[in-house]
Design goal:
The protein is α+β, with helices and mostly antiparallel strands and 187 residues long. The protein has four helices and twelve strands, in the order E-E-E-E-E-H-E-H-E-E-E-E-H-E-E-H. The longest helix is centred in the middle third of the chain and has 9 residues, at 73-81. 28% of the residues are buried.
Length: 187
């Protein structure tokens, strides 16, 4: 029997990312654990309203989503513990600028350059609805077919209720691969 545990958001873990944005003329970095897919070319980045980074995203309507792997975890965790209001985080990562002027972490294995289409506010949060303008990936995390290989990429996952970072697990099968077995069992 299932136990009622309240209105707990039970969709964790999620990929851990560093959001990059220009704030007051400088790159700023923010660790984010609330990023969601809204279709094949749209994402939502949900940030607490009090984050320093939000003002730059609102002003420029641009941000980068930099996927965190284990090599970036220490710096990513650090940038999530320090506010850009009190410390200049512009030099924390090596970075390049995308064509749209948004800073992107050079060491991130995968980066998405995004344009903000809309901002949906909820209590305590600015939810940035974004179009993915460009995606950049290190060749080492691409399959022979040129697609992202998450077995090689191994993004760090974030689990909110315990504030724990997790390793990406092993693959267990191909999408639609289990349907055949279910159909055969039904026959």
């Amino acid at each position: 029997m299932k136990k009622h545990i309240g209105k707990l958001l039970a969709l964790y873990p999620t990929p851990l990312v560093v959001v990059g944005a220009m704030v007051n003329g400088k790159p700023n970095w923010l660790l984010a654990g609330h990023v969601g897919i809204m279709g094949h070319d749209h994402v939502m980045v949900s940030l607490a309203k009090n984050h320093y980074t939000n003002q730059g995203i609102k002003a420029n309507k641009k941000l980068s989503i930099n996927i965190v792997d284990e090599t970036l975890l220490a710096k990513a965790d650090y940038c999530g513990c320090v506010s850009g209001r009190t410390e200049d985080k512009s030099a924390l990562f090596d970075f390049v600028f995308a064509d749209g002027g948004v800073p992107m972490v050079s060491q991130a294995p995968v980066v998405m350059e995004c344009s903000v289409e809309d901002i949906y506010e909820t209590e305590g949060f600015d939810n940035f609805i974004c179009t993915v303008d460009s995606t950049f990936a290190e060749e080492t995390v691409l399959s022979e077919e040129g697609k992202l290989d998450y077995g090689t990429l191994k993004p760090v996952l974030f689990e909110m209720p315990t504030y724990e970072y997790l390793r990406t697990g092993d693959g267990i099968g191909r999408c639609t691969g289990f349907a055949k077995a279910v159909r055969e069992q039904a026959d």
